[in-house]
Write a structure and sequence with these properties.
single chain; about 260 residues; mainly alpha; 9 helices; about 85% helix; globular
């Protein structure tokens, strides 16, 4: 009988484990939100994290957006040529970058750099008992370590996504004018005509949500790391994977709400 019911037992354990993790993350996120809203604040920590998450991520975000926009233009041109619709390349590139690819690609690239880095840093602090030392000094580690990072992610992701959108559209523009024989002025005019304010606003809303998710995952896994160096390494991997999955899932939910 135990062999027959083993698949159901395994499925039940997996579901319960998922719900347990979801509840723990939700409680952790609520604590971080409370720490953001209620003083004391640590502006020095916030500025430091904004610099690390935002400014230092510019190169990877810019390069990724550039090549994504260029590749998108080539693929749209290839598909459009089969239906004599090549003229819509600027329109589709602009909408695709601003509404979807700009926020998602930027967030995933930043998650690879930031979420894992946050998890490693906080996990090392957990392993070396520095977090326990904060309690000894009457400092709330959630307010001092978690809140500034989550708030920094919320604040810096929208500007980074705006930069990614501009660079991604310019990548499509470069391919369109240099390789696909589009007239530069017409390409820019078509791009400008197709975009509406809500296209940009929806992308910025996504960016803010993604910023919270990727920093929260790094903080959560690092804060709960156990097992010394191996635990820190595991937390780093889990932070990156969970952040990427949540970003993609949140993107679907937000896109469904915006349509």
């Amino acid at each position: 009988m135990s062999i027959i019911f083993y698949p159901f037992q395994a499925t039940g354990r997996a579901v319960l484990g998922f719900l347990r993790a979801l509840g723990a993350i939700s409680l952790f996120g609520a604590q971080a939100l409370w720490a953001i809203l209620i003083p004391p604040y640590y502006p020095g920590q916030l500025i430091r994290q904004m610099f690390r998450i935002g400014y230092l991520s510019l190169p990877v975000v810019g390069l990724t957006a550039l090549f994504t926009g260029a590749a998108l233009a080539l693929n749209i041109y290839t598909g459009g040529s089969r239906f004599n619709a090549e003229q819509f390349v600027p329109n589709i590139v602009a909408l695709g970058i601003v509404r979807e690819l700009g926020p998602v690609i930027a967030a995933i690239m930043i998650a690879g750099r930031v979420s894992s880095g946050i998890a490693a840093e906080i996990g090392a602090m957990r392993a070396t008992e520095q977090i326990d030392a904060l309690h000894t000094l009457a400092t709330d580690p959630v307010r001092y370590l978690i809140a500034p990072r989550v708030l920094a992610g919320l604040l810096v992701l929208p500007p980074l996504v705006v930069i990614a959108d501009i660079i991604g559209i310019m990548g499509g523009f470069m391919v369109g004018t240099l390789r696909l024989d589009f007239v530069g002025a017409i390409y820019i005019q078509n791009t400008w005509d197709i975009l509406e304010p809500f296209d940009v606003i929806s992308g910025l809303i996504k960016a803010g949500v993604f910023g919270v998710l990727l920093t929260l995952m790094g903080c959560y896994h690092g804060f709960n790391a156990q097992g010394g160096a191996q635990g820190v390494g595991r937390a780093t991997t889990d932070a990156m994977v969970s952040a990427a999955v949540l970003i993609i899932a949140a993107n679907f939910l937000l896109t469904s709400a915006f349509v």
